[in-house]
Amino acid sequence: MLEGLVALLPQVIFDGLLLGFVYAMIALGYTMVYGVLELINFAHSEIFMIGAVVGVEVFRYLGPAIPNGIVVLLLALLLGAIISGLMAMVVERLAYRPLRARGTTNRLVPLITAIGVSFVLQDVVRFIEGLWHNEFKLQMRVIPPLDGNFTFLTVFVQYKALILILVSLLMLFGLNYLVNRTKLGTAIRAVAQDMSTARLMGINPDVIISRTFLIGGALGGVAGVLFAVQYSTIDPYVGFFPGLKAFTAAVLGGIGNITGAMVGGLVLGQLETLSGTYLPTLTGGNFGTEYKDVIAFLILILLLLFRPQGLLGQVVKEKV
Amino acid sequence: MKRLGIVALGVFALGLASAQSNVIKIATQSPLSGGQAALGEQIKLGAQLAVEEAQARFQKLGFRLELAPYDDQANPDTGVANANRIINDPDILGVVGHLNSGVAIPSSEVYARVNLVMVSPANTNPRVTDRGLSNVNRICGRDDVQGPAGAEFAVKDLKAKRIFVIHDKTAYGQGLAENFRKRALALGAEIPNSAFVGTEEKSNFATLITQIQAFRPDLIYFGGIYDQVGPFAKQLRERGIRVPILGGDGLDASEYERLAGADAAKDTYFTTVAGPISQFPKAAKFAQDFRAKFGKNAEGFGVYAYDAANVIISAIETAIKQSGGKKPSRQLVAQRVRLVKLSGLTGEIEFNSKGDIKVADYFVIHLDTGKYAEQKLLKKVSIAAPR
Amino acid sequence: MNRQTANIVVLGLALLSLALLWYVPGALAGALGLVGVVLAAYLRPSMSVRAGALALLALGFTLALSQVPRVNILFYGLVAVLVALITIPGVPRWIKALLGIAVLLVSVPIAGFNNTFFLELGIQIGIYAAMALGLNVVVGMAGLLDLGYAAFFAIGAYTWAIFGSPQAANFLSGSFPLPGNYFYLFMALAIITTAITGLLIGLPALRLRGDYLAIVTLGLGEVVRVLANNLDHPVNFTNGPQGITPVSRPDIGWFHSLMSSIGVELDARTDYQFFFYLLVLVIIGIVVLVNINLGNSRFGRAWIAIREDETAAKAMGIPMLGTKLLAFATGAAFSGAMGVIFAAQRTFVSPESFTLLASITILGMVVLGGMGSIPGVILGAAALTAINTDILKSFSEYLNNLRQAGVLSLPSQVEPAKYERLVFGVILVLMMIFRPQGLIPERRHQLEIEEAKEAQR
Q1: ipTM attached to this prediction
Q2: Do B88 and C117 touch (CB under 8 A)?
Q3: Is the Cβ of A41 closer than 8 Å to some Cβ of chain C?
Q4: Where in chain C are the domains?
Q5: pTM of the model
């Protein structure tokens, strides 16, 4: 079987690429928020999940009405980005800003709040879906032409996979442009670097932070829609593992570093898919596919031990 | 304190719930929420129908018969917590449940403390009755028969040589898959270690599918529940792999079709211990009543739960007579259940000394059009429970 | 309200409740009694009235429970009395101790013998309280955010489960299961193994800054769970997702005789429950003593220094890694010991009991109660365990009764018993925003807040 698997390497790499892009987009949300607030926004995985749910519902209701899959997808992406982005802003406003206003330096408090928000969002979505459709597992109905496919050099490529790659690349380049070439981007970078000085320079940190959440949330929402289209079955708890792994990816690339998050996401997606596919055969079935989740954590732990600044990050000295 | 507010919510229910001595309840424990709710709900509804039909008879005996459904969320901790509540309600004289063997096993230990009888319509793991508890019975088959039955079908009827086996890492799925594999290997099939994979993955099966592609099997066997196998089938077919899928009774739900899509559900076979309603001639009226009352079709374990509840009900009736018209003890009810001889809708029900039904039926179903409602019964075998 | 009025109100309410609880026991009387406890705590009557009212109410709850054992609110009344005893100042210690012991050793068993659910609840509260106290050392005192605490719980539980059941025969020669009385030995063993594991994990992890530590511990918690779920091949250590059952329990023949000699007859329903209940009480007592002593020792002060300002603590010469490791290992040890009890009491373990939700729940108990505060953490444990094990499910049953009566019909996906995460999440968020020092703040926090209030005036 090993030879068969080796022959399928291009397929595996392609699958890893898809997963990697999803992780990359989610990781961006984590890294941006961490950059400005030094907060691990646990709730971001639920923002991602909300995007996925929005995607499913858009396809459920607009799918029959508009037979063109591309159009429905664009609408879903737009709606997902808006709703997730707004949700992220709401969370920031309600749960994180009151803590900032209090001025505590205790890092535990915002972290615990983030975890709480994450749980609340999971169950709220579950409740809404339960009440609305009495369903727990939501099924994505993909419509043509999205469900077409072709084979390219032994790699089985679905149209929806291509779209995932395309949209991800667009989003990534767009974000890069935003952060490096626009005034908002400069403001975000300023706040991330030194909030008090930025304030002295006339930047309102609250507004900038809000916008950061909006952008990060929108990216997460887009990632969610694409995830739902690609993997087609979601439930309210689907955000947890991808969120955790995406955070690992962000740390892998260097937390706070946007290019790092992209790189980290792609690398992690590749590693996970490679290990998931080859590990069982290489170990004769002793370490099965399920260890791929563990791989992500082990990488994280090793990384934090030996190179906490990640691949592309810089060592930051803690000032008193 | 803030706790007061929360507790106040429970006040009325608990205040009103004082034990009246002429109430008899039958409890059900099954997953009523989460991914397996479709199967669990059927268990509750089937038992509910049986209870409601028997209420008039019990009224004549001077008792009010009620159903007490519990949601075990397919989680052993929840099942055990519910079990602790159940044993402390003296009105509950029997439990119909569970769906998941991994939940039934620890919960039944709790019931055993007070000799509360449990009749399972759906637990197929051999361990459930192999422990020899006198209060545990089941009216369905076992995985050490269902698995090999599937293997016989796979090798002899489907002529599969290379089989890729997947399981969901639960007591049920892994047990079933292991039993399948043992028999399939003995019959000459090829299932190397690397083709026996356990996974808890629910969304992204890409790595699993790639392994399947490399292995080029004739058949895929999946010991799991529909909420996992459905999405798997969908992604598998999307990749263009049309190898047939064989599964166990965890696939016996119309939700499978919904999650996989009718196109992907084509070419799915499954063994089940719960035959389709059409198989049971006496069940036509049951199916009608079920649909009229609950607005959905009886499927999966619905009719088995109905029979399980009736087993307990008839045992209670006998026990009442034996106690001179008074409410019987749980021990007596458990004893009468073990001695029961009932002509149920699913067949003749009689238990052996371990609590297994003496002869159980196993069915092989084919979803050839992919639509659950159009399933075809390919085979039915009646096999005595192993000793 | 001046003291005179408060005295009259509280005493009057207590007497009224007692009368109702004796003659008309039920949920309403219980509710009235609870109100009495709350007022006794908040209205500041004189010390003797306070003590007297609480004693009367405890008596009332006990009497009611002996008559209507299935009314849960009465049990919570007893819990409320205990909490009130811990938190109200002014009443002399010996009175508190006496009343507390009376409630724990007389009232609860009386309730429990009629309804073993209360003993089960008591045991669960006890186990989680002991673990929360352990996490309290790590998070509350030393300020190290550990999101994978359930991992130590799992290690302790599996340690006993593997050797106290036929499981070990899969990879070791020898006769297994070990006889039940090895249970005590294994508690000690589990303390050692989990402490060592804590050290091993802590050595690399504790060099990291707060947030990173949180993620690493979360990752490690998940790794342990995945390992527990998968170590059934190539060698079957943990039996994977099927879990390990049955797990032996210690012999309690001596306990039966002891109880008979004081006139208490035990049967199959109550014997082990009562035994474990008393065992858990003893363990909590030990854990609390250890916690208090640690808190007052130089380690405790070092931890608090690290928690408040790590850089300053470093500058003062406190050895970072060593001190943190001690906190981590201590917390782990508590968890390990409780894991053994957990495994023996339920006679089965499965990886599903040790998920992230479990770790976060314990963290929630610490946060809700008050980080660093021993009575607070116990209260937090009682509250969250009660919500999780009982209240949500009772609410579900209540809604279910409504549905059977035809009044209300909700889709089954919406029943309350599934929404524990929502409840925890809301509690965590609200606590952090409005009362981050917890329900019963640590002395130090309390002083800080009072100082801040002074400064504002």
Answers
A1: 0.84
A2: yes
A3: no
A4: 3-114, 117-364
A5: 0.86
